[in-house]
Amino acid sequence: MQQAVDLTPDGHADKAAQLTSLGGALLHRFEHLGELGDIEYACQIRQRAVDLTPDGHASKAARLSNLGVTLKGRFDCLGELEDIEHAIQVSQQGVDLTPDGHADKAGQLSNLGGALRGRFEHLGKLRDITQAIQVSQQAVDLTPDGHVFKAAWLSNLGRALQCQFERLGELGDIEHAIQVMQQAVDLTPDGHADKAAWLASLGGAMLRQFEHCGDLEDLKYAIQVMQHAVNLTPNGYADKATQLSNLGTALQCRFECLGEMGDIEHAIQVMQQAVDLTPDGHADKAAHLSNLGGALQCQFERLGELGDIEHAIQVLQQGVDLTPDDHALKATWLTNLGGALLCRFERLGELRDIEHAIQVSQQAVDLTPDGHASKAVQLANLGAVLLCRFEYQGELGGLQHAIQVMQQAVNLTPDGHASKAARLSNLGVALKGRFDRLGELADIEHAIQVRQKAMDLTPDGHTDKATRLSNLGAVLQCRFECLGGLGDIEHAISVMQQAVVLTPDGHAATATRLTRLGGALLCRFEHLGELGEIEHAIQVTQQAVDLTPDGHADKSLRLANLGGALQNRFDCLGELEDIEHAIQVKQQVVDLTPDSHVFKAARLTNLGAALHGRFEYLGELRDIEHGIQVMQQAVDLTPDDHADKAALHSNLGRALQCRFEHLGELGDIEHAIWVMQQAVDLTPDSHASKITWLSNLWGALLR
């Protein structure tokens, strides 16, 4: 072909036809091998073919349409907006020049639809996908059954419908997309060069329907057809990388549902292959990197291996850096990066990670227009990182912002959506955080309501079932601590125990779930005094500490819980070894907790309580002196509107009263009465602790 072109002068009547044919051959080779030089040359010579074809020539429309297809191919590879703009322009010219009833009309409409869809995927403008569906449907309607290109036009229509579904979230769009894509597959015989492409598209649509509706049969079928597509695509073909990456995404989804390690390992393997097969500069490189990063993060969340999250952040940052701000998927890549940074923050506690996560998550929200189907995802993720920063720093404005955006995310997520349960559960976390801070009963009631709904929406066998059971238990325990209803703590322990049983050995969340169970058992022990409860609480809390590596952000929390349980057993049995051990671990906790941390005050007061306990046992004055010192620090660090302020005052008052009883200093009992009175004044009459604070005050007054 090249020889024929070279031997034919520009003015020859066959020159344009020869250029068009050579361009088609180059495009075909590019689609199989992905060599950039082929698509560059194809665009160049097809443009020459158009330029050599006079207006009014019978082949002008076809050559314009062919040029549009070639320009879109280069756009798909390089992501240059100029190419897709030019592709739409010449494809539209081709359609306009072709009379209705012409045999080429359907193909030219379908090509125009593909170009419009390409621009929509880059810029996200709704009118492009609306028009793409319209012209793609026209192409299908004009093509009789049995036509050699019927399957291609159906597949193009399906992809446009899927794009609109991803933008608007209308279930009818994805159902229609699957219907026409299945038709395309059924019309294409095995061995046909396009069979793999149609299967891959169908698998992608089935995966989107699964993500929306949560039906595991959809996911199973998606993996089946995606694997079939990969198997049919020879090594070296340009589509191989995308098919591998999409298969990896489906395998990751199944891992997130069922928890089978083989799925996430397979997902990472095929996604890494996809990245390795994609040259730098290719428009899909960022997508493949982002998918790989998500899978590595998923494995980190299961196994807790720091190398996985480090690798995830590295490849996700690469994906963001490769994507221009006007790209429709920029927000998605930013959100994914924010999620990975949040994961590393939760593991290491480095403040710069959470600040970076908030920055990129807010950018993702700002880049996503209202009405976009991904808006809820971006808001939910922003809420999660804002909540995490609040849990670390205790800044109330950040928590209020987190609740606001999480509630927006829930409101934007239709009932029946696969992510509804997760978004409800996360909103429950934020509401509990506000309850812990402000003590408003309405927040804990709302938190229980949304977490119960989240659990009810999560089917048995789902990998998140254990998480949601554990989360529900935590808010039930909170209400018990506020109102004292025994049914709440019984229910909390029951669901937390279920969560532990459902968690496989080696799971990164095991320690968290054991810690929560230990806290609930301790809570019931404090209410009922059953010795078996405190023994069980210490056992599971020690397990949690042993499973937590040094340097882990939650190490101090788990040590704090162990210290509390040991002190409770000391209070019950009077074994000196328990209080010595309790003080040792509580001092570790204080040392590990920075002054800016939201729990610093609570951890100081817990250390003070343990020192107070040892003073009452041994009578060593330095213990009560140290105890009062750290309790005063705790009070000073706690804002007046904090729900724990009253308890901290009461604890300090009891320690001061104890020193008064030992030394007889009048200033101590006066100070004790003053801080105990504050505890009473800060506590509403309906609170379960009001009677305790009054009793403590009355005891001090009697002294």
UniProtKB/TrEMBL annotation:
InterPro entries tied to this protein: TPR-like_helical_dom_sf, TPR_rpt
Gene3D superfamilies, sorted: IL-4 antagonist (De novo design) like domain (1.20.120.660), Tetratricopeptide repeat domain (1.25.40.10)
Top-level taxon of origin: Eukaryota
Full protein name: TPR-like protein
Pfam families reported in the protein's UniProt record: TPR_8 (PF13181)
Taxonomic source organism: Tetrapyrgos nigripes
Lineage: Eukaryota, Fungi, Dikarya, Basidiomycota, Agaricomycotina
